[in-house]
Amino acid sequence: MAKIIDGGVNAAKGYRVASVRAGLKAGSQKKDMALIKSDVPAVVAGTFTRNLVKAAPVKWDSNIVYNVKQAQAVIVNTAVANAATGEEGLANCRREAEKVGELLGIPSEYVLVGSTGVIGPQLPMDTILKGAEMMAPLLSDERDEAHEAAVAIMTTDTRPKEIAVEFEVDGKVCTMGAMCKGSGMIHPNMGTMLGYIMTDVSIDYDIAIRTLREVVDVTFNMVSVDGDTSTNDTVLLMANGLAGNEKITGDGEALDAFREALHTVAEFLAKNIAKDGEGASRLFTVNVVGAPDYDTAAVLAKAVITSNLTKAAIFGKDANCGRLFCAMGYSGADFDPDKTDITVTSSNGSMKFVENGLFLDFSEEEALNILEPDEITAICDIHSGNAEATAWGCDLTYDYVKINADYRS
C-alpha cells in the first residue's frame, strides 16, 4: 500500500534539487529554472507528446530514454519552449547537457533537458548556461528545495504540483517523489505538461518503461483542459536503485507495489493539472462505468470532458445533462443510448438525470445545490459490461480567453 508522505521530487534516497531565477522573462521575479540530480546513474523511462511538431528537448530526451536508458540529471527552464527551433534548438539542448555534465561531473548523455513556454524563439543560451552554473552548488535534499523547484517550473499554473509516497518492495522501504507543471495546452495524450518522477527502487528498464506507459495511459492521458496537445509533453521516471530492493524484473508482488505507487503519484498530479486548468474554477470528473472494455469507456469519458458546451455548463452550474449525453453520442464509441444512465454527484449529494436514455423530472433548486461545490463528478453507466474509465477536466471560464489572449505579453 502506497502511503502519501510530506515530500517532493527529492524525497527518495540519493536525489537533490535546486532552482533559481536566471532571468528568462523580463519583469518577472519568479524562479524560472530547476535542476535535479541523482547521486548515481538511474534507469530512465519516459513518455512523450504525440504531436508531430516535437520540441527539441523531446527529441533529446527520447534519444536518452530509448537508446542510453540511463540518466543522472534533469535541467528544466520556463519562458521558452525550444520548439520549432530546428537544428539550432537541438544543438542548444546538447550545449545545455554538456554544461550540466561538466558542472556535475557526469556524462552529457546522462543529462535530460526540459523546456516550457513560448513556441518559436531560440533559447537564450547565455542565460540558460548561467542558470545551470548558479544551480549546481545549490543542490539539496531539503524538503523546502523540492517545493521551490515545483514553483520554479510553473508557467500559467496557479499552484505547484508535487507529491511523495512510501511503499515496500521485498521488505525494503522505497520512496517516490514527483513534481509536474501543467495548466494550459492540456489534452489527452498529455499536454504542455512536464512531469518528473524520482524513485529509489531498483527496477529493470523494460519493466519500468512498460509500467510507466500503462500508468500514463490511465492518468495523464485522461486529462483535458482545452483540447490542445502540446509540442513539449514529457513524463520522465528515474529509478536509481538506492532503496536496496532486489531488482524488479517481472510480474509479481514487487511490481504490483511499484505500479500502485506510480499510479498514486500520477493520478494525484493528473487531477491537480485538471483542477488548475487555465482560468478554471472547478474540477470536472467523468466516470464511465458498465462498459464492455476500457477503450470504450475511455473514449466516452474523454468526449464528455472535452466538450466545450459541457464545460461551459459546468462553469454556469447549469444542470444541462443533454450536453453530456450528446458528447457521448458523437464520441465514436459503440454503446446503446437507450440503456444509459447519467448521475451527477458532489459533496452536496447526487442526482440521476438520465435513466435508460430518458431524461427524468428534477428540481432545479436541488440540482443547483448539487452543482454548487467546486468539484463535480458525472457517472455515466452504459450497462454493457464491467469495464470503466475516469477522465478529469475543468470548466470553461472567461479567464481562459483572457490568459491565452495575453500569453506572450
Can you put this structure into words, describing what you see?
The protein is α+β, with helices and mostly antiparallel strands and 409 residues long. The chain is built from 11 helices and 15 strands. The strands form 2 sheets. Strands 1, 2, 3, 4, 5, 6, 7, 8 and 9 form a 9-stranded mixed beta sheet that branches. It has a 6-stranded mixed beta sheet with strand order 13-12-11-14-10-15. The longest helix is centred in the middle third of the chain and has 23 residues, at 253-275. It is globular.
Question: Level of helix content?
Answer: 25-40%
Oligomer description: single chain
Report the sheet with the most strands, covering strand number, pairing sense and barrel closure.
9 strands, mixed
Residue-averaged pLDDT: 91
List the helices and strands and how they pair.
Elements: E1 3-5, E2 15-20, E3 33-48, H1 56-68, E4 70-77, H2 86-104, E5 111-115, H3 125-135, H4 143-152, E6 161-169, E7 172-181, E8 194-199, H5 205-218, E9 234-239, H6 253-275, E10 283-291, H7 294-305, H8 308-316, H9 321-329, E11 341-346, E12 349-355, E13 358-359, H10 364-370, E14 375-381, E15 387-394, H11 398-405
Parallel strand pairs: 4-5, 8-9, 10-14
Antiparallel strand pairs: 1-6, 2-3, 3-4, 3-9, 6-7, 7-8, 10-15, 11-12, 11-14, 12-13
Helix pairs in contact: 1-2, 2-3, 5-6, 7-9
Brief rundown of the structure:
The protein has eleven helices and 15 strands. The chain has helices at about 55-70, 85-105, 125-135, 145-150, 205-220, 255-275, 295-305, 310-315, 320-330, 365-370, 400-405; strands spanning about 5, 15-20, 35-50, 70-75, 110-115, 160-170, 170-180, 195-200, 235-240, 285-290, 340-345, 350-355, 360, 375-380, 385-395. The strands form two sheets. Strands 1, 2, 3, 4, 5, 6, 7, 8 and 9 form a nine-stranded mixed sheet that branches.
